Sequence to fold (263 residues):
Amino acid sequence: MEFRNSCKATPAKLTVVGAGPGDPELITIKAIKALNNANVVLYDALVNDALLQYAPHAEKIFVGKRKGCYAYQQDQINELIVSRAHSYGHVVRLKGGDPFVFGRGAEEMEYAASKGLEVAMVPGISSGLSVPGYQNIPVTKRGASESFWMITGTTKDHKLSEDVALAAKSNATVAILMGMSKLSQIVGLFKAEGKGETPVAIIQNGTRENEKIGVGTIDSIVSIVDEEGLANPAIIIIGEVVRHREKMIQIIRDKQLELSQKI
Ligand SMILES: C[S@@+](CC[C@H](N)C(=O)[O-])C[C@H]1O[C@@H](n2cnc3c(N)ncnc32)[C@H](O)[C@@H]1O
Fold:
């Protein structure tokens, strides 16, 4: 591997950068500039490897989780950021989606700043918004939803966030990340609120070539997940806004039929 980090050219710096949801075109220009300027890139499993081409001169270190195993523990990542920055200069910490949405970007920045590094942050397109969006599911829509919750399905104690029970009582759209292992529990909370008919979509590997989607209701989604073999990484999106996707499909079909009848 060739990289240009053998002498420290810039002050010790950490830039926490959002890589977007998976499609390599869904990254910001500012993020590409940061990568181009990096001496070292530490990246996670949800980052599309194609993005590493934008850091042609940097050392690239995979620090994510693959096949259930972490390459590095969080404290080791923190240390790696600091030691690499002191040795080589600019470290880019490239994270899936937006680094400040369930991404531990804030923690890493805090640690780096406490060790005297210059710190910066480049926001990314969070999967919680863009993955449903790519499938024609808006998180808000006039008449259907006035707000949305983005909730983690797995807290640091490996439990379902208590916010899911609160969100189930609301009229908001609910997007749950890291929730697949708790799907039955989530469904139970919505059923307890009499919401068995509420539409649900589950999108796996959103915006990527291997994207998969299952659409149903609170009552049917568990069996749909089994049938379709849906698994992590996936977003669970619950709310009336899910119907927009079906509506768009119908409008497009009707339009095509109308046009074909005119020919
Ligand atoms: C640790 S969180 C990181 C979220 C990220 N910071 C963001 O803003 O998108 C990881 C979870 O995000 C969701 N996720 C991220 N990318 C996804 C994608 N392309 N398709 C579906 N879910 C995704 C999954 O729920 C996954 O388990």
Notes: The pocket of S-adenosylmethionine is lined by residues 21-22, 46, 95-98, 101-103, 126-128, 131, 177-178, 203-208, 232-235 (CB under 6 Å).
